[in-house]
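Example is below:
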Amino acid sequence: MNVTTDPLADDYLRRLDAAASALPAHRRQELVSEIRDHLQEGLRQAPAGDETAVRNMLERLGPPEEIAAAATDSTPPDQLVAPLRETNGSAIVSVVLGVLWFAGIGSLLALVFGYRARREIKNSAGSQKGSGLATAGIILGWIGIAILVAGALGGALTLVAAVHGGGGPVPVHSP
């Protein structure tokens, strides 16, 4: 937070940040950033090292607690709107690849994107949705892998049976 290069202004911004702790994080950051920009502009216009000019500028702004209270009261509780949650793109890719399969490669990619999406959604602090899509992509990916493995095993068994004369018992040689 120490970006204004004036100790009084930096202390003011720390107090504002603490006083605005009840605000949502993005709104608190926006408020502190606006005040920081205002202070930096004022410091550029004030004579260097003029503590009186800095104190006057801070006094005109008012106590940080009042600014934070005004920002808190600016949105009435009955008008609060839930933030729009964005669907995670990796979750969408995961389910599409799981459905399309692409001879096993799609299934493998569905798993990669599905697990990645679940991690991103978990770390998004509620700003992303799509966990169900990611899970569906993971399930489809594992089903595709199972089908691929079963097909490979079936093909291998068919090949072994064809090599040994049409599926009859394989003779065992005893010494």
In short: The radius of gyration is 32 Å. The longest strand covers residues 86-87. The CA atoms of residues 92 and 124 lie 16 Å apart. The chain has two domains: 7-79, 86-163.
